Known about the structure:
This protein is α/β, with parallel strands linked by helices. Helix content is 34%, strand content 25%. The protein has 9 helices and 10 strands. It has helices spanning 46-53, 93-97, 99-103, 109-121, 137-150, 167-183, 195-201, 229-232, 238-250; strands at residues 2-14, 19-31, 35-39, 61-66, 69-70, 78-81, 155-159, 187-191, 204-208, 215-220. The strands form 2 sheets. It has a 6-stranded mixed β-sheet, with helices on both faces. Helix 5 runs parallel beside helix 6. The longest helix is centred in the last third of the chain and has 17 residues, at 167-183. The radius of gyration is 18 Å and the shape is globular. The mean pLDDT is 89.
Amino acid sequence: MNCLEIKNISYSYQTLEAETMALQDISFTVGEGEFVSIVGPSGCGKSTLLNLICGLAKADTGEILLNGSKIDRTSTHIGYMLQKDHLFEWRSVYSNVTLGLELRHSLHEPEKEKVRNMLDTYGLSGFSKSRPSQLSGGMRQRAALIRTLAVEPDILLLDEPFSALDYQTRLEVCDDVWKILKDQKKTALLVTHDLSEAISMSDKIIILSKRPGHIKSILEIHFEEGLTPLKRRNAVEFPSYFNTIWEELMDHGR
């Protein structure tokens, strides 16, 4: 069953000089529980596409369906995780991860218990009263993810969520986030410039062209069952996937 359907989406934006087309005739699906990555050259419209999906911008043509219903405004069924964790220093870790529930006036005991369980499961229960500045970069991203998951979105949009981390922490957090999403059986759409990251985390990769972004190809990713992203990087299939994507990105003929 498809969780997300993108149908013939095009989008352009206005400048003082002219109208610029950012995305052109984009169509793809994301199945329930699937992890999909979007890669492409800088400026090809990857983040713009996420903004369209979550309702922060409106497409010129086409439609976006979430669980069969058309999206034309921001939706509580979509979680959005950005490059920065945006944790508030004046709030404790617990108060940060429950913020979305507070804003929805749904911070009741069952929700509180669920948050406490996630903090415990993902190694943050001992820091629930701490301030964000007392956490490592990886712990902050875990806290941001728990905050996003607490409101039970149907799909998570991940816009370069690991780019601010050092390389070692980035590898560790990729593993953490992937395991959490698989454990929670969540559907996710990741935008990244890191091809290795996309290959190691994804079930499917969408390759966009240079602007105006259109889909050059969609690559299904298959690894041995149970391999984490870190272990996938050492799998025999990994170099072949990397080379295939690299060749697509370097082919400027289409």
